Amino acid sequence: MKTTRRNFIKISGAALGTATLAGATFDWVSGSALNKVSPSALQAIRTPTYCEVCFWKCAGWVTKNDDGDIWKVEGHNDDPHCNGRLCPRGTGGVGMYYDKDRLKHPLIRVEENGKQIFRKATWPEAFRVIGDKMRTIAEKHGPECVALFTHGSGGKFLGHLLKAYGSPHITAPSFAQCRGPREVAFYATYGEGVLSPERTDIRDTKCLVLIGSHLGENMHNGQVQEMSQAIDKGATIITVDPRFSTAASKSKHWLPIKPATDMALLLAWMNVLISEGWYDKEYVEKNTYGFDQLKAHVQPFTPEWAYGITTIEPKAIRDTAREMANASPAVIVHPGRHVTWYGDDTQRLRAVAILNALLGSWGRRGGFYNPERISIPDFPHPPYPKSKKSYLDALDGKYSLATEVISNGICEMTTPSPERDCNIKGWIVNGTNLIHTLPDQEATLKAIEALEMLVVIDTMPMEITGYADVVLPECTYLERYDAIRNSPHREPVLSLRMPAVKPKYNSKPGWWIAKQLGTEMGLEKYFPYKNIEEVLDWQLKQVGSSLEEMKKTGVKKFKREYDDLYFADSQEYEFNTNTGKIELYSTEMAAAGFDPLPQYTEHEQPPAGFYRLNYGRSPVHTFSRTANNPNLTDIMPENDLWVNPRVAKQWELKNGQYVWLKNQDGIVSDFSIKVRFTERIRWDSVYMVHGFGHGAKKLTRAFGKGASDTQMISNVKVDPVMGGTGMRSNFVTILLEKPNEKEVTS
Ligand SMILES: Nc1nc2c(c(=O)[nH]1)N[C@H]1C(S)=C(S)[C@@H](COP(=O)(O)OP(=O)(O)OC[C@H]3O[C@@H](n4cnc5c(=O)[nH]c(N)nc54)[C@H](O)[C@@H]3O)O[C@H]1N2
Ligand SMILES: Nc1nc2c(c(=O)[nH]1)N[C@H]1C(S)=C(S)[C@@H](COP(=O)(O)OP(=O)(O)OC[C@H]3O[C@@H](n4cnc5c(=O)[nH]c(N)nc54)[C@H](O)[C@@H]3O)O[C@H]1N2
Ligand code: SF4
Ligand SMILES: [Mo]
To answer: Which of 78, 240, 667, 711 is 20 to 30 A from 34, comparing alpha carbons?
Structure first.
């Protein structure tokens, strides 16, 4: 098979113009810019938006300065995602617009004097190259051999393009690298997912149990606000985390669990609730299926049994079970969000779902509410062509309960293998930096190397752009219209994003890119509109609003129509499961050949001299997307390595010293990372924030700052139920000296 050798190209040249960056400093975040502003600027016209710095998508207002340029973004008072307050990242989002390192022009990979470089191109040239390649792939292999990876708002338009082209392969890292196991587990149990924003009724809860969910560092705005509200009202917080997280510091009970053993704790909690008779008997009797099997199943899993595995004292297990039962049904055992940890994640989340059912919290005030969203029709278009293949066809029946396309599955399908008749030949990658996002970088690069076409649509010269054949610069969220944000919430709520200013440089919005590309490919009948305003106005009018109205209000709430926010005691409910009940014993899992009741499995522990690599979020950064943001790097320019003082002593480390890391497979970190001594991390683990250690030189602030957790994650534990990539079974050791070049792997 012919493969294109795809060297990483450093994006160069192209730097046109002198973007005046009137104070793209942390001023916006600290609010000190407010003092410098003239009254006339305060009256400047506000335009509505929703934030793209993370996927919570808070609605906000953009205000311009006297020069007509962007001054600040603030939260929208009527939006339940943010209640008028953005998080520091959202406030600092203006930095995405002002960043001088942004992608400025379309780029096409060409060979000059035996060297691959990017040539600055016009949009029509770039579309022609992509159109030609896509036509060739469709003719030679079939349109299902092109896949779209997408994360973020523009995915709607590109997804439409791909379906019109004839491919079902549309995937996002938010499934198999994030919340997929949670959704599959809750569907199996309740016939419904947890969704985003999560349907957790935190503001009214009496007891919130966080299992590795580090709210407070994980800054998903509405949830963090509701958690402080709940604390103010006297709610009990129980945090299960091997690390003393911010949430742990706010907790009545912190259970510093041995990593990778949560299943044992969950089973022991069930054992206590059932054996002590502390579960919600009426709710369980009325709504659930399989209680007797569950009771027999958890009988051996006593707190004493779990103690040996988790290092959590039996008394602490009983006391916390009691706390939950006392609060029931206003109790939430939070399912978490990034849950792809150890490969048995769907089963762990099944245990979480079952525990909530025993506590009667699903559909109850202070537990999980019934969210509602309105249905907005698509702009009319001809039916999509029928696709010959589904992504599951190529995976030999593996991951049969996956409810979405799995990104790592697309990588597998792209990498040539004699056992597979269908290979993917082209990728369009929109708004996801796969090099930092997918674990096992070697596998990602192998797949990329086998591609005939890689198109990347991004705002920044991130690592993934360096492997592209064509790079398309999208304008930032502050410069464009996007699909209507339509969230499931306590009440249905819509939010509009519109451009506050014209796109800088030669960047364009995603909807325009999709429409032009569609036209280039002869698919114009799928884009029967002049511009996005026409689409949005038509859609909004179908639900009793209009673009005109939304431009003024930004956010619109609707009345609930279908059911109540909580279950009514007097009513019978039918759940969307095989038995119509909440399935403690999952008939769906059993039919698919998986354990119908969750089992404890032992996971690997670090070998001598190695530490488990633990990772998480910083409150002021989002993944790798903010690592170059001028406002946010001002607050936190690099990540550091949390090391227990006991480990530090053993290695004779100095606080603040830079070290390199080497993982269990001999992979050495490209960059060094600063050591931080802290009792907040266990002696068997080290911790770092995800999203740093960038190797793309054009990221002038981020390049070489801190280390990349992803680079160290080469051991992936794939969840057999739905294909999620467990990433927490990687172990690192410390290198005190800069490794010689040969030892550095990439
Ligand atoms: N090692 C490791 N891997 C992880 C995680 C982890 O904690 N550790 N977390 C996992 C989780 S939970 C998730 S959800 C995923 C997140 O995965 P991603 O969403 O891929 O995360 P980012 O690194 O932020 O990459 C976003 C990319 O979109 C670009 N971008 C930003 N705004 C726009 C825009 O408006 N338009 C376009 N076209 N591009 C834009 C950014 O420049 C960047 O290249 O990562 C997963 N992978
Ligand atoms: N500021 C900010 N907020 C964000 C994001 C961001 O990039 N920045 N990303 C958003 C996204 S997409 C997601 S998915 C969420 C992710 O955020 P969450 O779902 O809250 O968290 P995780 O990344 O799974 O978990 C990190 C926590 O798990 C703990 N942990 C590690 N191993 C174990 C273990 O074996 N058992 C237990 N019990 N705990 C363990 C770590 O110490 C850490 O405190 O954050 C969201 N919020
Ligand atoms: S939580 Fe913060 S970064 Fe995420 S959408 Fe809201 S304001 Fe933006
Ligand atoms: Mo995520």
So the answer is: 78
